[in-house]
Amino acid sequence: MSEISAQLICSALGLGALLLYALYLPLVLLYKHYNSSFRDLPGPPSTSWLKGNFPEMQESENTIFYKKWANEYGPTMQFKVFFNMSRLYTADTKALNHILHNEYIYHKPRITQWSLGRLTGPGLFYVQGDKHKFQRRIISPAFSPGQLRGFSETFSEKAEELRDIWASQIEVDGNVAQVDALSWLSKMTLDVIGRTGFHYDFHALSPEGNANELNKALSIGFHAATRFSIWLMIQSVLPVTRWMPSSGSAQLRKAKKTMDRIGQELLQESKAQLMTSGKKLDTWRSKDLLSLLVRSNMNADIPYRQRMSDEDVLAQVPTFVFAGHDTISSGTAWSLYALSLHDSVQDSLRKELLRVPTERPTMEDLNSLPYLDAVVKETLRFHSPAPETARVAVKDDILPLNTPVTDKNGIVHREICIKKGQHLLLAISGVNLAKEIWGEDAMDFKTLVIQTP
């Protein structure tokens, strides 16, 4: 058989498989739609057979759930996504508790797991089940209160550096300036995570503004891995399509190669220093999270076969960055925004902070500031950095409800039958802004609950 004939046969087989799948997919979608245990639950009407409620969700950045739909349909409802497929939204506290405590039943969706895995590898946010528990057990000692307390000096140092940058900008602009707080806070957070996470300087706050190699790779990789497209959704569901290029895939591979190389260097440095100095090493270098993780993983009490592989340890480097980078910077930006709208809260907080006798407060100093603690907690309630998360059932289950749901047929449900493969949206902000929990003013920044010092 000639090479050309073989290519034609392969092409014909590939085209045939594609056509077969094109016929198979609609049948699967129709079966799932009419067999869904969510289809009779209350929920907003679909505005598009192709996109479902997705346009409204996208336009409102999902706030439509708790700003409008929760008032109409309650804390648990169905909504439609692509091809009018039903999904379950819940802010029911009993349901959320059940889902989050049954990680062997409810996993991260494939698109979330695959998107993260392309960038981080088998890190804590990617793995599930027993491997997740295993990694968490190894990593936990690095996040003990005593270890985190040692990072306060870096927090203060970088906060002062950012303060001086803003003060300089304001002075140059005639004491009145418009500052992009989120952009600068993102840079500061990256510097903090680099220093405390793996003793690496990103120089993100550098006045020259020149991002170093790892900084650039992380930025490119993050945007490429989190970019949304229909094709990426298809690739996440159908592994056979992943060999085909997608938007940003070449950039992601290049960025991942850089991150792996630099991460491997950092890992080997940590191992070498630990082996040279012993487990009782007490220098600053040993107090970053990566070194503490390496130390925990090399503990003689852990059998060799139960230790994390170098690949698993290496995957924690980008995981450390993405776990805290966006959430911390956006949470702090929202705090500043909330304070700008409430002068009395801002004044009271300033008075409490000015009573601290040093510009480099310890964790003990910060823990002794009740008004600061109240402002931070109220900001996290009102402006949650992670407003929702998604799960998919990997086996059938019964989901208990705190608030019963009356379906379209008038039947009251105190529990919902969950079928394998069904998707759920867990509404963190839905709980944080629920009037049943926080009162009729739940949608307001509750300054009254922040007691004046």
Summarize the structure in short:
56% of the residues lie in helices and 9% in strands.
What percentage of amino acids are in beta strands? 5-15%
- Biggest sheet layout: 5 strands, mixed
Assembly state of the chains shown = single chain
Q: Low-confidence segments, ≥5 residues, pLDDT <50?
A: 280-285
- Computed Rg: 25 Å
Helices and strands, in N-to-C order? HHHEEHEHHHHHHHHHHHHHEEEEHH
In CATH terms, what is the architecture of the largest domain?
Orthogonal Bundle
Subcellular location: Membrane
InterPro entries: Cyt_P450, Cyt_P450_sf, Cytochrome_P450_monoxygenase
Cofactor: heme
Keywords: Heme, Iron, Membrane, Metal-binding, Monooxygenase, Oxidoreductase, Transmembrane, Transmembrane helix
